[in-house]
Amino acid sequence: MDKELIKILNELKNVAPDAGYSAKSRNLLLAEINADKRTAPKKFSLADILVAVYSRRPIYVIAATAFALILIVSSSAFYMINKMDRQDFVVKAGEVNNSIQVKLDEIKYLLGSKEIDYNKGVVIQTMLLEATEELKQASEESDSNKSLEKIKSAQETLYKIDALLQNK
Amino acid sequence: MLDGDKNLIERAIGGEAEAFGQLYDKYQSGIYRFIYLKVGLREEAEDLTHQVFLKSWQNISGYNFKGFPFSSWLYSIARNQVIDFYRLKKEIVRIESIAELKTENDSQISLDKKTDLARVKNAILELNDEQQNVIILRFIEDFSISETALALDKSESAIKLLQHRAVKNLKKIIDG
């Protein structure tokens, strides 16, 4: 192999992320891990979380709602998987749930890493609450098809939020 | 698998955040570099790198120690993350300049050298996915043939063949 090319490829070893980004990303990850540890054994109460943070800045409300959504997603998927006896519904619910989890992770990351202006914050907050309500209804719905529809609708809302956060 | 890694992974599985933080410190640069060289955009690479570590944390209890290095496991998550990135993005607009290519010893690198680095970086982006993986892991991350095979889920002979083709194509692209 050409020595000059090897030399240049070796130089690419020095490509490095920005130190500020690395520190921020590390802190966010550790905060997430610690939040997981604190909340894992607790029972979810959306109302408690919203009441606790509603008087604060919108960003906290958004972050808390996103966090609440993650818990709902986990519990609603569990509910659906246990409630539905037909294999195709279980698979569909699982797929949508995985997709929602991924999107929520992205939203949480973007919320922590970007400055959001007040108006956009209010829109995102409203959409998150909308998605929360859809997932809540999905878990209460006795008709499996309707339940799945509501979960998919919540998924759509989350994709819109993600697009908003990424300024698409 | 290094004993130090095993200890950190076990502690991370047990929920110790700082242990995962140390794994992050150890592997984050390599994962970022791998993603950046495949995506070519700094901000996207940062977001994707974060996602890789988030996913690895969420799935760390499923990590199997036997015969599969932790780094290989992380690179396989990174590979999938990049595949998803290209699947979801309709169009990638790369408008990064040479100045965007950040290196650890940035201030000591001449403009000529930076131009060479950017030229090779852009040539890597023109390779297909598998050839990119082999070039990055073998020549930039210094993985052995067997480590590369594990990370890319291929046989060692397949990696040797891929490497031969990747190098040939890379030189062809660079020479124009």
From TrEMBL, chain A:
The chain crosses the membrane at residues 59-81. Keywords: Membrane, Transmembrane, Transmembrane helix. This is DUF5667 domain-containing protein. The lineage of its organism: Bacteria, Candidatus Wolfeibacteriota.
Automatic annotation (TrEMBL), chain B:
GO terms for biological process: DNA-templated transcription initiation. It comes from the Bacteria. GO terms for molecular function: DNA binding; sigma factor activity. Signal peptide: none annotated. The keyword Ribosomal protein does not apply. Pfam families: Sigma70_r2, Sigma70_r4. InterPro entries: RNA_pol_sigma-70-like, RNA_pol_sigma-70_dom, RNA_pol_sigma70_r2, RNA_pol_sigma70_r4, RNA_pol_sigma_r2, RNA_pol_sigma_r3/r4-like, WH-like_DNA-bd_sf. Coiled coil: none annotated. Residues 23-89, 123-172 form the RNA polymerase sigma-70 region domain. Keywords: DNA-binding, Sigma factor, Transcription, Transcription regulation. PANTHER family: RNA POLYMERASE ECF-TYPE SIGMA FACTO, RNA POLYMERASE SIGMA-70 FACTOR. Belongs to the sigma-70 factor family. ECF subfamily. This is RNA polymerase subunit sigma-70. It comes from Candidatus Wolfebacteria bacterium CG_4_10_14_0_2_um_filter_39_18.
